[in-house]
Specification:
The protein has 12 helices and 25 strands. The chain has 533 residues and is an alpha+beta fold. The strands form 5 sheets. A 10-stranded mixed β-sheet has the order 1-2-4-3-5-6-9-10-13-14, with helices on both faces. Strands 15, 16, 17, 19, 22, 24 and 25 form a 7-stranded antiparallel β-sheet that branches. The structure holds benzoic acid. The site of benzoic acid has 5 residues, from loops.
């Protein structure tokens, strides 16, 4: 069927209806990836939603597959999504109520549409959604997320829905095949992308925080979202920070907001990574993600299903490898544990009196290779380069500084946002400062928990700290964890100046930075420790 939206564009959708003549609530999923795939998307059993009594409307977004108009990622999803919901609730087969759900792109599109307050909308379930299109999507800490964005743009052009054929399609396929080369020299893709995906250049050229991004930013629209939201995400999901921000921002505006965080990356959702198994309970299917959608929609669209879980936040605590419920995020009752960089150690207690410094050589021709983390890179379905990978190989490099604590006498439970504050004298050409939080197992395995980056100098955009030549205090948001460091394990933080191809390499010339610790420059790691955890 074709659904008209306000500018007359016709958006194509498939409708699945339960076997009843009675009007029912409708659940809407809007996708850039083709409505003809699995109706519920990768994580949800769409036909189970229909068997449970919902109509399911799956729509190709503007400019994709069978829908009219031109695809401009996210630009039209608020209005198109709202118009689609308004159209659906006006059909005779609908009882006038609607829910929005989806995964990844679809999820942020759902939030943008929800903020328009379409009539009849009663609930939303954003699964692995970001909170904006600059920080957390195209950028992080001022660095461009080259690995993800180039992959997403190229692979997306390969889909039938992009409408390419002949020489253009062959050229895109060739670029996908040599994506590692393009990661080293993204400009080599610019002629192709200027022609086929003009948004690529706009994303490269607009720094984070620029008004350009406001057109599609859930984080600027929380006050408009007045329907209960259930957020699902993973500790290693590329959009984790955004999903946490969405949970919190919507709740702070007074709307019911609930959160589930599993040990998942963007596409590895079974709880099994190549080097790490979290157990059966970690499997998205075992948790019954479809059932979570149904509970949420039943409660808010049909008034069924009893009282919700008393605690709205459910986290899979890694290390303990169990699910735990909490009253909120940030989790109340955490205290700050400060560990100072001290020589090559990480020490509790007061900042070390003795000053120390390490020189970091930055060679753009040989950047620190991405080794796991919250990435979305080619191969993301296999877990080959995402999640809790062992860091020992990168840690052997001279341009990776490791600071390691003593073996823990008792378990240490850390739940919340972790932050590295580090004093750096950047090279005049500019600098990136990267940090990783690592759990070192007694056998030596160095398991990555989370990581971050901060770009210094004008290249970081309006909010980037300047690089004046002396030591500057740099805040690197390493990200959120819910983790137990077990007794005998050690806490480690790594400091380096690149993580490629995940982030574009900066500066593009040979550079030398100095990392200071102790004395007047108390570089430190902040961990939110859960008392009695
Ligand atoms: C997305 O839909 O936004 C997405 C797809 C694949 C990887 C990462 C993100």
């Amino acid at each position: 069927m074709k659904i008209p939206v306000r500018d007359g564009t016709l958006l194509s959708a498939d409708l699945y209806r339960p076997e009843t003549a009675d009007p029912v609530p409708v659940l809407v999923r809007r996708t850039p990836y083709g409505k003809s795939g699995s109706p519920g998307g990768a994580s949800v059993d769409g036909l189970r939603l229909v068997r449970a009594g919902y109509a399911l409307l799956v729509q190709d977004v503007r400019g994709r597959f069978a829908s009219g108009g031109a695809f401009e990622p996210y630009w039209n999803e608020a209005a198109d999504g709202a118009d689609t919901v308004a159209w659906a609730v006006g059909r005779p087969w609908c009882d006038g109520s609607a829910g929005l759900f989806g995964r990844s792109y679809e999820a942020m599109a759902a939030l943008l549409a929800a903020a328009e307050r379409p009539p009849g909308l009663g609930a939303v379930v954003p699964h692995v959604a970001g909170s904006g299109f600059d920080e957390g999507w195209t950028r992080q800490g001022g660095a461009f997320q080259l690995g993800f964005v180039l992959y997403w743009v190229l692979y997306d052009l390969l889909l039938d829905g992009a409408g390419l054929e002949g020489a253009d399609l062959a050229e895109v396929a060739g670029s996908v095949d040599r994506i590692d080369e393009l990661y080293r020299d993204p400009e080599a893709a610019s002629e192709l992308l200027d022609r086929l995906a003009p948004y690529w250049r706009q994303w490269r050229e607009h720094p984070g925080g620029h008004p350009y991004w406001r057109r599609a930013a859930p984080r600027d629209a929380y006050a408009g979202i007045d329907v209960p939201a259930l957020h699902l995400t993973g500790w290693y999901d590329i959009f984790l920070a955004g999903a946490l921000e969405n949970y919190r921002g919507i709740r702070e505006c007074g709307t019911d907001s609930r959160l589930v965080v599993g040990p998942w990356s963007h596409c590895v959702t079974g709880g099994i990574f190549p080097q790490r198994r979290y157990g059966l309970a970690a499997d998205e299917d075992r948790l019954d993600v479809t059932g979570l959608h149904l509970d949420h929609f039943d409660r808010h669209l049909r008034g069924r299903g009893g009282a919700p879980e008393p605690e709205p936040v459910r986290l899979f605590v890694t290390g303990a490898d169990t699910w735990r419920a909490f009253p909120d995020w940030p989790v109340p009752g955490t205290g700050e544990l400060l560990l100072h960089l001290d020589g090559r150690r990480l020490t509790p207690g007061p900042a070390p009196v003795a000053a120390g410094a390490d020189r970091l050589r930055h060679d753009p021709a040989d950047p620190v290779p991405t080794t796991g983390g919250a990435t979305a890179l080619p191969g993301q379905f296999t877990g080959g380069d995402c999640g809790p990978l062992d860091q020992r190989e990168v840690e052997r490099r001279a341009d990776v500084l490791c600071f390691t604590g003593e073996p823990l006498a008792a378990p240490l439970t850390v739940v919340g946002d972790t932050v590295l504050t580090v004093y750096v004298t950047p090279d005049a050409a500019g600098a990136d400062v990267t940090g990783k939080l690592v759990d070192v197992h007694p056998g030596g395995r160095a398991e990555l928990l989370c990581d971050g980056i901060r770009r210094l100098g004008p290249a970081a955009g309006a909010d980037g700290p300047a690089a004046p030549g002396g030591p500057v205090e740099v805040t690197v948001r390493l990200g959120a964890v819910g983790h137990v460091f077990r007794a005998g394990h050690r806490v480690r933080v790594e400091v380096a100046s690149s993580n490629a191809p995940r982030f574009d390499v900066h500066p593009p010339v040979l550079a030398h930075h100095t990392v200071h610790h102790g004395g007047g420059h108390p570089s430190r790691l902040l961990l939110p420790r859960l008392a009695g955890g």
